[in-house]
Structure formats: C-alpha cells, structure tokens
Design goal:
This protein is α/β, with parallel strands linked by helices. It is about 20% helix and about 50% strand.
C-alpha cells in the first residue's frame, strides 16, 4: 500500500487534498480522492480514497477511508475499509476498525482494535443478540 518515500511522493501527486506541514485547518473533509495531511487538522475526514498522515502531523478527528498510513498523532476513531499501516512515529488515541493492520515497533495505540472483513463490531453484537433472542 504505502512504501517509504516513493509511495509518499506518489500519494502527494495523486492527492486530491493536501494539508501542508505549516497549515492548521479546522473543519470536516468529505472526499472521493486521496488526502495527504502533514499539518494540523481538527474536525473530521471521510474519503473513498486513501489517507496519508505524515510523521509530524497532529490530527484531532475521526477518520474514515479506504486505506490509511498513519505517522503522526491522531486523536479520534478510525474506520478503514482495507489496510491500516501504523508506522513507528505514530501515536493513536482512539478506537480502530480495519480489515488488515500493520504496526511498526515504537508506534503507540491507546484504544480498541477491531479487525476483519466482516461487519463493524457494533453490528456484529446487534446481530448476535438478535440470533440469541430467536433461540
């Protein structure tokens, strides 16, 4: 999904929205393309594309995306449809839902992690309760 500098350069080139390292943004982003965040964001991020969060980025937002690479600090919940890559410099404070997860040594995650191709955890629980009531 994301491979070091070559992949980072590719994401910058293909990105629909780029928040540079000196930029501070407050607001919600809804997009169908890739989003690159190197600065500060307070709000929300929702995209059908990929999210690349730089190593020095500071995010206070819930994030929904196809796949993501996290390098900075994220305070909020994440719902990632595919692969979530968390690199050594990342600090995550919030719950994570994803299909597949890669975590480098040194990364910090403080929250619940739910993985798999199935439904989100809340829906699984609701369906399980419904099945048990039928029995």
């Amino acid at each position: 999904m994301f491979n070091k500098q070559e992949e980072k350069d590719s994401n910058f080139k293909d990105a629909e929205t780029i928040i540079g390292p000196s930029v501070i943004v407050k607001g919600n982003f809804n997009s169908s393309g890739n989003i690159v965040i190197e600065g500060v964001l307070k709000g929300g991020v929702k995209t059908a594309g990929n999210v690349y969060i730089g190593d020095k980025a500071n995010i206070t937002a819930d994030i929904e995306a196809k796949s993501a690479r996290i390098g900075g600090e994220v305070r909020g919940n994440m719902k990632i449809e595919g692969v979530l890559q968390i690199v050594a410099s990342a600090k995550i404070f919030g719950d994570v839902e994803c299909e597949s997860l890669s975590v480098e040594m040194g990364a910090a995650i403080n929250g619940k992690i739910t993985m798999g191709k199935n439904l989100p955890a809340e829906k699984k629980t609701e369906e399980k309760l419904a099945e048990e009531e039928k029995e």
